[in-house]
Structures are given as C-alpha cells and as structure tokens.
Design a protein that fits this description.
By secondary structure, the protein is of the alpha/beta class. Strand 5, helix 5 and strand 6 form a beta-alpha-beta unit. The N and C termini lie far apart (about 35 Å). This is Glucose 1-dehydrogenase. GO terms for molecular function: glucose 1-dehydrogenase [NAD(P)+] activity. Keywords: Oxidoreductase.
Length: about 250
Amino acid sequence: MSRLAGRVALVTGGLRGIGRTCVERFLAEGASVMVADLADTADEDLTALGDKAAYVRLDVSDEDEWVQAVAAIEARFGRLDILVSNAGIGIPRRIREETLANWRKTIAVNLDGVFLGTKHCADLLAKSGRDWKGGASIVNISSIMGLVALPDGGPYNASKGGVRLFTKVAALEFAEDKLPIRVNSVHPGFVATPLAQAFPDELKAFMTSSTPLGRMAEPEEIASVVAFLASDDASFMTGSELVVDGGYTAK
C-alpha cells in the first residue's frame, strides 16, 4: 500500500509500543516519519529503517522542545502532514493515595503534550494540508479510559477524557478557520504491548476476561486505525472518536 506516499508524519512516543507500530505502518504505506521520544538517540533498529525515518528527542510536556522539534521537522523534511500524539504515562493509584506531583506529571504528558503538539504543529500542517483531499491529519491517542472510568485511574482517566474533548475543540476551530487539518481521536482498549506483557498475571487475566472478544489487541490493530485516519480514506472525518476495544465499552 502507498496511500501515504509523499506525506511526512510525526509520532510522539514513537520508540516503543503503539507509537513504534504506527511508525512502521506509516513507513510501509509510503510516508516519511519523524520519530519523537525521550531517548537521547534512536535505537539501532529504528536507524536501520532507512532515510525515510528520522529521530528527534522530545519531552512533550516542554513547550520549548516542541518549538525545536517542529524546526527539526521543517529542516529535515520541509513539511508535516500527519501528527500522531501518542506519548503517555500512567501509574495506577487510589485517589486518597495519589500525589499532586504525579497528578500534574500525568496531565502534563498526556494532555498538555497533545495541546502543545496541536498548537505548534498547526501552521506547518495547514501549509501541507492544502496538497491533499482530506487535508493534514492529527490523530490523538486517547483510551477507553477517556470514555469510561476504572478505579485507580484518577489522573490517567482525567487526562484521556481531556484528550477526547480537546480533540473535538481543535477539529471545530480548524474547520471554522478554514484550515485544512482534520483532528480525530483513537480510543484503544487493552493492548498487548511489551509493557502490558510484563504486567502481573492477574492484571493480564482481567484485561482479557473483561474484553468481550476475549483477548488484548495487537499493536498493529491500533496502528491500522491510525493510518486510516491519517489518510484520505478518512477525508470527511474530523472531531470523531474511534474506539478499538474488542467490545469493552459496549457493555
């Protein structure tokens, strides 16, 4: 497939998990990709992907680093067509045991990072978006926990719910301002990332037993939805939320 040929994507949290799988899917579909993560340099496997992939260190909660990252993208590729805000963190903890420091850090990464990426990438996305039927595309990775609550998920639930509604605000603003940028959110259920595979057996058992399809998603099943939203196949979709949860929120 080459439906993303000629496009440049930025994927935050792109060295592992869902982010890494999105990077690989975009490259397979013909895009060039700027991978952003917290490591000082990319790993050897990413470097081996070739000159269509590049790396920039980015703390998504730091506004100055966003300014530098956007400058790096423009210098390396000259354009930006797709932004995938995927970077996120979460530590399960009861509200009475939660710390303000962890609350603020979770909100900063999961929600501030989406805001900052949208703000600082908008001009570059709007410029490139004029080249495509569906315009440029922002895909924000939320969660089923942006739709329904789970105990021990205070700051994570709050941040992912914020991503869901911020996505809709951005979609409406860009449409009203006649900017060719679509903005949508993806809400994965439980995904079999390397991190999830290291969870305690009882937690993994809950993830599979509570999902109607009886298993966790593979990262590729999330990346395929992200690639769809990034492409002109989703040219009339903005402000939408796509739930990829094996039926969890249908209960």
